[in-house]
Amino acid sequence: GLILLFYLVFYGFLAALFTFTMWVMLQTLSSDIPKYRDRISSPGLMISPKPDTALEFYFNKSDSDSYSEYVETLKTFLASYNESKQSQNIDCTPGKIFDQDDAAVKKACRFNLSDLGQCSGKDDTNFGYSKGTPCVLVKMNRIIGLKPEGEPHIQCTPKEEGTVEINYFPRHGMIDLMYFPYYGKSLHAHYLQPLVAVQLAINSTKEEIAIECKILGSPNLKNEDDRDKFLGRIAFKVQMTE
Amino acid sequence: KGNKKKKKTEELKKELDLDDHRLSTSELEKKYGTSINKGLSSARAAEILARDGPNSLTPPKATPEIVKFLKQMVGGFSILLWIGAVFSWISFGIQLAQGAESPFDNLYLGVVLALVVILTGIFAYYQEAKSTNIMASFSKMIPQQALVIRDAEKKELPADQLVVGDIVEIKGGDRIPADIRLISAQGCKVDNSSLTGESEPQSRSCDFTHENPLETKNIAFYSTTCVEGTATGIVINTGDRTIIGRIASLASGVGNEKTPIAIEIEHFVYMVAGVAISIGVLFFIISVSMRYKILDSIIFLIGIIVANVPEGLLATVTVSLSLTAKRMAKKNCLVKNLEAVETLGSTSIICSDKTGTLTQNRMTVAHLWFDNQIYSADTSEDQTTQPFDQSSPSWAALSKIVTLCNRAEFRPGQENLPIMKRVVVGDASETALLKFSEVILGDVMNIRAQNKKVAEIPFNSTNKFQLSIHETDDPNDKRFLLVMKGAPERILERCSTIMINGKEEPLDSEKAEAFQTAYMELGGMGERVLGFCHLYLPENEFPDTYQFDTDTMNFPTSNLCFVGLLSMIDPPRSTVPDAVSKCRSAGIKVIMVTGDHPITAKAIAKSVGIISATSETVEDIAKRLNIPVEQVNRREATAAVVNGMELKDMNSEQLDEILCNHSEIVFARTSPQQKLIIVEGCQRQGAVVAVTGDGVNDSPALKKADIGIAMGIAGSDAAKNAADMVLLDDNFASIVTGVEEGRLIFDNLKKTIAYTLTKNIAELCPFLIYIIASIPMPIGTITILFIDLGTDIIPSVALAYEKAESDIMNRRPRNKRRDRLVNHQLAVYSYLQIGIMQSVGAFVTYFTVYAEQGFLPSTLLGVRVNWESNAINDFEDSYGQQWTKYQRTYLQWTGYTAFFVSITIQQVADLIIRKTRRNSIFRQGLFKNKVIWVGIFSQIGIALILTYGLGHVTALNFTPLRFQYWFVAVPFAILIWVYDEFRKLLIRRYPGSWWDKNMYY
């Protein structure tokens, strides 16, 4: 009995102590930006849609069921980029870092879906999957305060040449600097990260096509890390049947 | 079969049953089918050899080295770690087959676990291999060649070819090749020390002198040495059937009992393994029912096992024990079997030899009687003067007799040595007298030269006296001086006067009465008494040209003048009484076991305090109350002197009764075989028994004892081999220092284990919380191994250097059944209190690291699956940033490092609190044990090297850590210290309270 009571008090005290120290620790943190960002100095790349399994797309262009999941994912993903959702966003000056460190309210730059051309889902609601020209969106991970230098753009290359022709939207796969820097979830609530759509015109239906996309043209965005295969690059595979 | 073996051992324990010593030569010839002159025929010898086997000792079946090695590989925690390793490999195989991205982590983990087992196994094997084989010395004793009569010819044969019935000849310097019944002997003396431990050579003849074959003079034993003379004898026993062979097989037949510390460690291993397995299985079930994949559940299981097993602890215990062993070796206790270090500490009964161990092993003059008065002499080891009153002229006369009537001489060239250390040629009592007079009178040899000896009759057993006639050193006194010493009653018979204060007075009945009283008193003290008398021969009858003839005795040998008595004893070592009283206050019973006469044994026992001044034996009570011994209430007697003859007729119940009812026991006149019976009797009482011994025949008792202590100087090789410990100075007092060290190491091992177990909880909790709350993994398996086998090793060894908290020699020996090394208080306090506090501190650091990088604690709950998914490379943190898998993994390693650092920092506090179990740290002294600080610095140093030096080696999962994270756990470390001080304060304040019972380990 006494033992139980003792441990009740003892653990009660420890729990209180734990809660208190955690509370003290959280008080020292800002709710806007994390204290340290040294573990993510350079952003990773990711694609959408993202297949459940490893990054491998398998679909039959004549069978809508086989790619409906990808199309749905793209639609959902792009919903937040709709004009209606961007009413508060402003048009920023292209090609320039949009520095608003001093502003109390951080504005978000508008990203026009029409920039994604045939991959915007406006003209082709199937994002090219039914035509054998599937769209894949490439995006760069959000990192607070990151200011890319140079002219960052996405470039994708198939492992074997000639198996696929690649179109980029916006042109050259450019990522506009006006979307940077990012100020974090709480300050920058309506922020939309820039997207690059990659349309793959697949020539061969026989084999799996391996494609690697990289971010190029910016000295402070790494893309060759030995250990991190997703830092500034991403590799995926596509196999289309008819 | 076991029964049969037991029966065989029982048989061996019985006194030797042999009747060859009773038989006449012709009966022997008939019995063995041999002829004294011709020996056996070669053909017959070959037949017997084929029947009996060679004359050599069968070595015991040695466990093959590889089996010993493999035993180490599966002992202790090894099985658990092997299971962990196998599971790692299995999951590696499965992952490899599934084509997962990083299956090699599990392969490496398995390899590391296997390496840990193999390395600790090799370490343990190496420690064990150091302890030596008991048979080694027995086989060394086998003689090489023997001179045998066969086919009526003398032949040199290898001794192992000897058979029963062979006639062998031996001469001085030979080893006796088998057990031999002598049929002729010329001045033959044998050294039986390898058998009995008595170093005095014993004469051998062909006479049947004693019923006991061990004491009769016509049998010489295998492996003893013939010192001088020659002899011929019939071989009556060969090989394993010889006395020494029986003892050897008895020693190997006597089971090697598990040492108390081995039992304690086993108990502890079972406990920890039990905890590990039950938590492991419990969480395996939980994780399976939480729909984790089986493979993941298995990996959790490995983590839980690794976290729970203190991998480095068994090696630490070994190192601590060997450190103590080294310390004891400096104090003259050489420990052969490491675990014996602690056994000595839990000893509750010491069965000690008398001669050499309790005593100085040399005769020394203890008392004098002259002028109707008894004087005491100094018997200490380093006497330089004698304090008794030497003014009486009687003393002058007595001292002259003592000096002159003595054939012993110092070996030349020892003038610079202290008198007591000089080597003397002569028997034990003459040596005592020579040294005694040298101490008092100075240069004895010069005095003898001035008093030239003209005639002498040496001591013999029929006369029982020794006599010599001298010229006097007074140039004016031309008389001869006749001096005589011998058995007091024989000397007195030859006297008609007695010297009182330098004057000769007639020896009337009153004076004879006084002599008798003194003689009885000295004899009653167990001392060997000699009487001394002299006579100045009248000058007219014996002019200086007189020719003395010792054969015809042409001089008076009666009507002499009695001068005094001297009594001698082998006195106790001066350190022994103190050591015995220390044993007494430490609750250790000291039992004397000796071959000596009961009176001498009792006297020594009384003088060293084995029998205390106030206690009485049954016989004493009977004498005091003047009633027959049978009427005395045996319960009233605290002391007992048991004669070997009585012991022989006792059954084990009677022996138990004696051991139970008397606190002070002396066994006198015991045969070496009876020592084993006494040891077993003590063990039946549940006691941990230490036994001292030196002869070959002591080896079964030494082996049977919980700790056998062999004498380093007097001990035979066999005794040293059978023993667990060798006493380099043969001094009983050294045993007591050994006991103290043994008790200290037991306490300190408790501290070491408590220290080591604590952090296991801090290593285990991460796994449990990881499984239940699905947070990112707080600590890696490899990291845990770095704590267990890296930072924690030196500190836990450092605790072995801790000084005792209180006088450990004032408490009773620990109870084998009750006072466990790891009791539940220790486990509960370490696991459920300090361990949990450590975990809390480490988790605070962990959450701090994650929060400051962007993952607030609320974000971390339940993220495990996505966090660990290789496909998710845009994992969002609390601030909207996105992380790739590798970035998360790197953060996770930072978390490992932070968790590791926190445990290390808190282990510093844990180390400091473990210095004491009851006293305040400040009373113990924070800086007295310097090694603790070496431990602390090593701990922090290793952590710094791992974090900053090896932080870039990915396989180790360490990352360079921001410096401030080292201090997050510091408040918790301080809390641990304060809480433990509080615990100790309450324990000291309220002894026996609920708190004391539950919190004192």
Automatic annotation (TrEMBL), chain A:
Keyword hit for Acetylation: no
Keywords: Cell membrane, Disulfide bond, Glycoprotein, Ion transport, Membrane, Potassium, Potassium transport, Signal-anchor, Sodium, Sodium transport, Sodium/potassium transport, Transmembrane, Transmembrane helix, Transport
Transport is among the record's keywords: yes
Protein name: Sodium/potassium-transporting ATPase subunit beta
An annotated GO BP: potassium ion import across plasma membrane
Highest taxon above the source species: Eukaryota
UniProt family annotation: Belongs to the X(+)/potassium ATPases subunit beta family.
GO cellular component: sodium:potassium-exchanging ATPase complex
InterPro entries linked: Na/K_ATPase_sub_beta, Na/K_ATPase_sub_beta_sf
Gene Ontology molecular function: ATPase activator activity
Membrane-crossing residue ranges in chain numbering: 6-26
Membrane topology: Single-pass type II membrane protein
Function: This is the non-catalytic component of the active enzyme, which catalyzes the hydrolysis of ATP coupled with the exchange of Na(+) and K(+) ions across the plasma membrane. The exact function of the beta-3 subunit is not known.
Location relative to the cell: Cell membrane; Membrane
UniProtKB/TrEMBL annotation, chain B:
SMART domains in the record: Cation_ATPase_N
A single MF term (Gene Ontology): P-type sodium:potassium-exchanging transporter activity
Key words of the record: ATP-binding, Cell membrane, Hydrogen ion transport, Ion transport, Magnesium, Membrane, Metal-binding, Nucleotide-binding, Phosphoprotein, Potassium, Potassium transport, Sodium, Sodium transport, Sodium/potassium transport, Translocase, Transmembrane, Transmembrane helix, Transport
Transmembrane segment boundaries: 74-95, 107-126, 268-292, 298-321, 753-773, 779-801, 822-847, 893-912, 932-951, 963-979
Biological-process GO terms, alphabetical: intracellular potassium ion homeostasis; intracellular sodium ion homeostasis; potassium ion import across plasma membrane; proton transmembrane transport; sodium ion export across plasma membrane
UniProt membrane topology term: Multi-pass membrane protein
InterPro entries referenced in this protein's UniProt entry, alphabetically: ATPase_P-typ_cation-transptr_C, ATPase_P-typ_cation-transptr_N, ATPase_P-typ_cyto_dom_N, ATPase_P-typ_P_site, ATPase_P-typ_TM_dom_sf, ATPase_P-typ_transduc_dom_A_sf, ATPase_P-type_domA, Cation_transp_ATPase_P-type
Top-level taxon of the source organism: Eukaryota
Family: Belongs to the cation transport ATPase (P-type) (TC 3.A.3) family. Type IIC subfamily.
Protein name (record): Sodium/potassium-transporting ATPase subunit alpha
Biological source species: Acanthisitta chloris
